[in-house]
Fold:
Amino acid sequence: MFSSFGLRAILKSSVGVLRESSGLYPAVSVRPWSCCASAQLAGAAASKDKGIFAVQPPVRHYARVAKTKKTGPESQLSDLPPTMLKMEYASVPLAQTTDDLVKRLLSLELASHKEKLQLKKEQLIAKVQRDENDRNSVEVQVAVLTARIRNYQDHLQKHHKDKANKRRMLMAIDRRKKLLKNLRLVHFDTFERVCEQLGITYTFPPEYYRRATRRWLAKKEFCIKVFKAVQKQKAEQNMKRQLSTTETKEAKAPEAQT
Structure:
């Protein structure tokens, strides 16, 4: 460490050298009594060529590449225009001719998520219902569950650690699978129309699979042995029954001749 007197002497002598330095690098204008003189002296490097005291060019610190955000699937509510009126005001004729400010309050622009979801649910029900008063058929239940499942999926895209809503979504998916399975067995044309209108891809359940443990293999082998033993016993009983019937017929035959 330099003492305070030595540091002042060096700074005074360096001022003149810096003024006479070449124009290759900008010279540092150091004030001997400034508070930041020591910092500038520490950051400056002495060039050995021709004994010039000059500052090296600044080092460029390049910024990191910006991370691109992952764009997930669009929400089911994205196709609802913000100028569309709410469900309870859509059938009111006065709401169509009212002021722009009032119409904005009655539109979906300032509506809550619950109101938008209810409107989307009604749109899906209108696609598959049998008539205007149909609110409890299998097709309507499938439409309600579809809107609910897609809402859960949109929520889990942002909050993937929400285990409670994930469980509710899986329960709704299982319920919809059972309804679609029964509808496919009873009315196949209606099943195809519902899947097409709601954009559902029906996949068949996987085949039954069970891990073959030693206990399960031993139990299976034992069941096969029992099954064969029972079949053999039934065959013997059938043979005895056939022999007894033939003996009775042969015994009755001479009696009938006499």
